Amino acid sequence: MLKEAIYHRPKNNFAYAYTKEILHIRLQTKKKDIEHVKIIHGDPYDWNDDGWQFSKKDMHLQASDHLFDYWITEIKPPYRRLRYGFELTCGEEKIVYTEKGFYDIPPSDDVAYYFCFPFLNPIDVFQAPSWVRDTLWYQIFPERFANGNTKNDPKEALPWGSTEPSPTNFFGGDVEGVIDHLDYLIDLGINGIYFTPIFKAHSNHKYDTIDYMEIDPQFGSKETFRQLVDECHKRGIRIMLDAVFNHSGYYFPPFQDVLEKQQESRYKDWFHIWDFPVITEPKPNYDTFGFVGSMPKLNTENPEVKKYLLDVARYWTSEFDIDGWRLDVANEVDHQFWRDFRKEVKAIKSDVYVLGEIWHDSMPWLLGDQFDAVMNYPFTIAALDYLAKDKINAEAFANQITSVLSSYPENVNEVAFNLLGSHDTARVLTVCDNNKQRAKLLYLLQLSFKGTPCIYYGDEIGMTGENDPGCRKCMVWDKDKQDSNLKSFIKKLIHLRNSEPAFGNDGTFQIVESSAETNHLIYSKTYHEEKIYIIINPGETSIKAAVKVDFPDKTVKDLWNDSTLIPTGKSLIIETGSNDFSMIKVY
């Protein structure tokens, strides 16, 4: 055994409370190095004349990547306390792994040898809003979705879709336009809308806020927004707003005051200014988003700034009954601000969804005191690299996805925000080089994956566009110009997600097979006695794969084509065509 690869820590993604009664315990070992793992566990105060009393329970191999195996088990401590270690077996070799190191037999003279989960306190259980698990999001860039009221158009607004989008042009999209098309979203199967910023700002994207307490006039009034929220709630649609609290816009009044009064401004400490006079171009002498001088970074440690921004969060949550906040550039804001933000919005509405924009390992923000979830860009990048860009093969994809899922507790993964495209990235079909079949494989993967999926407006009808500003075209409402086949395909996947527990978020995800040679991927989704096998084949030739029928006396069904299949013995040979997929249900 390679002892250096054996790893556990009694916190974060390796030991956590999954529910108020159940703990999840994970162990990492070198890939294919260990044949069998048992967890040694017991209450720290359970002793008799023979020493500490413990039990053993098998752990199962949850997943593997290119370096490690990940083992997991559930434990229900009878008294909510736990001391534990691991018994690892490989051939004739057997060792015991504890917090104090490795032993030949389990130590029983002192529980201090063992890892400790001191007490399962219900308040410490990570609890994201339960409704998020069953939500399918639709991201709307308000300026480009629909123009419902031309009277509030900016003076320079162009006719809808009359030209390509640019960083500075306007087309008049607004809140009324969204209200007018809510039935379209319901027909698609959407029950959550994520809006990019709607607050008063200078640009068409509104990430350069002028007034956080006002809706941008080109989008309409607060009364119209209240109507939108009401109409959405009547239809079972949740609303999530974008909070840009890392930075303001150039025309934010406090920043304008600093530009005018320099070091005499009462707002000078609202920002991170290096020296005076303030210089905005060509390179600002103050902290910004990136090096964008028109987006000065806010000092969220300043009490006045903090109060202002928390007042903003309280106002929109309480006055308009919104359901979620997406937090822009969340990783650059101090942790204490987000802790206080969470307390404030959850005190108003306990099941509000707090989503952070973080592109990297996010465990420090997902301990239950800050965010409910983050935007799952590691999933996005891996999926696109595999199925759209051909940058990695199925085996590499499986390794990356295993790493993503193993990096977080299961109750975190269940509400991760899974996207394929957004206002920040090229559109899915464009990344796929207009290969619609590859795009379909991506949507299949996204909508059958663990987490809460999001579709960027227009992707469902085959809209194209390169990176910003190309990905921000006006929504195409002419049905003759929409890809009805792609839309119908996505609708069917959404229906399966809502009607098949194993296919959706209730199903346990596991990689079954990934081939570097043929490039095909097989994964399963398991719910109680049901299992769905999904085979994805982006290769140039068809492949034949054996699907194990591991439940005796069960029915086997082609779920996509709704036909019954007859297995031979305990397996079923499934042929999957080039650039195609198969979906087999065993129940």
Write a brief caption for the model.
With 587 residues, the protein is α+β, with helices and mostly antiparallel strands. It contains 13 helices and 32 strands.
Q: How would you describe the overall organization of this protein?
A:
This protein has 587 residues and is of the alpha+beta class. The protein starts with 14 loop residues before the first strand and ends with a strand. It folds into four domains: 3-124, Immunoglobulins (Immunoglobulin-like, Sandwich); 130-246 and 324-335 and 353-499, TIM Barrel (Alpha-Beta Barrel), CATH 3.20.20; 249-299, Oligo-1,6-glucosidase, domain 2, CATH 3.90.400; 508-586, Sandwich (Immunoglobulin-like). It is built from 13 helices and 32 strands. Strand 26 (521-527) and strand 27 form a beta hairpin. The protein has an eight-stranded parallel β-sheet with strand order 22-21-20-17-14-13-24-23.
Name the descriptors:
587 residues, TIM Barrel, Oligo-1,6-glucosidase, domain 2, 8-stranded parallel beta sheet, 6-stranded antiparallel beta sheet, globular
